[in-house]
Design brief:
Elements: H1 4-10, H2 15-41, H3 49-56, E1 70-74, E2 79-83, E3 89-94, E4 99-110, E5 118-127, H4 140-149, H5 157-161, E6 171-172, E7 178-180, H6 207-211, E8 215-216, E9 222-223, H7 235-246, H8 266-271, E10 276-279, E11 297-301, E12 310-319, E13 325-331, E14 336-338, H9 353-357, E15 358-363
Antiparallel strand pairs: 1-2, 2-3, 3-4, 4-5, 6-7, 8-9, 10-15, 11-12, 11-15, 12-13, 13-14
């Protein structure tokens, strides 16, 4: 700086101009020193506003047009994966399944009353208008569907599943039907009910029992709720409530192999044709479960049913913050739907009752 000042004087600049030049020189020197300091200390320079916005909201602005996405095929099971220009997976579509998993904003699922576990996920599970087939990304219906779903915050399968845990707020339709809010398991039979001995439980409650309204199925069979079963669902009734009544997947009135909808019991759903077997049904616990994705149905053998029949079904949520595979289901010992550890740990790994009873998984 001392060498610069004589040079400024030599040109006999007006006083204001000289001050301006000195100020500019000082500012430039300050910028150089600041950059060198940040380089030495490892502190990056602040990103410009556009870059900060991209960092704060990763995944925002996904292109919905097929020209902005790259689709590739992978296996186990056969599926199509959509990537954006950065290579980020933004959607997964499985051949033969209507379930699609889209990448969206992060959210946390928790049930502090029954577990310390939390599931933090960017997976949003939605139903396609029809089962996925290879090459469907080139169809007009798919482009329209994807454009309306990417970035949407409308309730998905996972959000809907948590509408029935303890403490969930109640909501009603315009007709006054309560369609969400805490659910219980099928109630214990009373001595004067005439259904079964005192202290036992009857056949589980279905979604129409929870709703408290009659329901006519596509085969014209009408099922009517029992008054004392209101707000009740067993494990498959819960799945039918979430996937069927709320998400519009077709439902069967019974365990009828000829029907095209979701059947009534866990055993029938596990053996049925709806969806894709992600983990084939066997009489042993699967050795590998990494192929699961959020929204898959998981099936369990239980003590209540004899032989090799499947007695329980749940919805896979993904890994919790301890990297444990966790599911949610409606079960007797917990008194209703839960992702917690009351009435059995809600994990698919380890030595717990449900982990050891796992037998299969399907992607609807």
């Amino acid at each position: 700086m001392k060498r610069l000042l004589p040079e400024i004087r030599r040109f006999s600049l007006p006083r204001n101009a000289a001050l301006f030049l000195v100020t500019a020189v000082l500012l430039a020197a300050s910028c150089v020193l600041t950059a060198q300091f940040r380089q030495r200390t490892g502190h990056p320079e602040a990103a410009p506003p556009a870059a900060r916005a991209a960092q704060a909201a990763p995944g925002a602005g996904f292109g919905a047009g097929s020209g902005q996405l790259h689709f590739e095929r992978i296996g186990n099971p056969a599926r199509t994966v959509a990537r954006d220009r950065r290579g980020t997976v933004i959607a997964t579509f499985t051949d033969g399944a209507r379930t699609a998993v889209l990448t969206g904003r992060s959210r946390t699922f928790a049930e502090p009353r029954t577990t310390d576990a939390k599931v933090v996920t960017r997976s949003w599970v939605r139903l396609l208008p029809k089962a996925w087939t290879r090459g469907a990304e080139r169809s007009g219906w798919f482009r329209t569907w994807l454009k309306s779903r990417l970035g949407s915050r409308d309730p998905d399968i996972l959000t809907t599943a948590f509408d029935y845990i303890a403490g969930a707020p109640a909501r009603t339709t315009a007709a006054g039907v309560r369609y969400s809010g805490a659910a219980r398991y099928t109630p214990t039979t009373t001595k004067d009910s005439g259904h079964a001995p005192q202290g036992t439980r009857r056949t589980g409650s279905d979604f129409y029992d929870y709703l408290g309204i009659p329901w006519t199925f596509p085969d014209t069979v009408t099922r009517r709720p029992e008054k004392d079963r209101a707000r009740s669902v067993d494990s498959s009734g819960y799945v039918r409530l979430v996937y069927g009544y709320r998400s519009k997947l077709p439902l069967n009135s019974r365990d009828n192999a000829a029907g095209s909808g979701l059947q009534r019991t866990p055993d029938a759903i596990a053996h049925g044709r709806l969806g894709v077997p992600v983990i084939p049904l066997t009489d042993r616990r699967p050795a590998v479960i990494q192929q699961l994705q959020p929204g898959d149905l998981v099936f369990f053998r239980t003590r209540e049913l004899p032989g090799k029949r499947i007695g329980h079904v749940g919805i896979y949520l993904g890994l919790d913050t301890a990297d444990r595979p966790r599911f949610i289901s409606s079960r007797k010992n917990a008194g209703g739907p839960t992702m917690g550890d009351k009435g059995g740990t809600s994990r698919l790994d380890g030595d717990g009752y449900y982990a050891q009873g796992l037998r299969a998984a399907r992607r609807l």
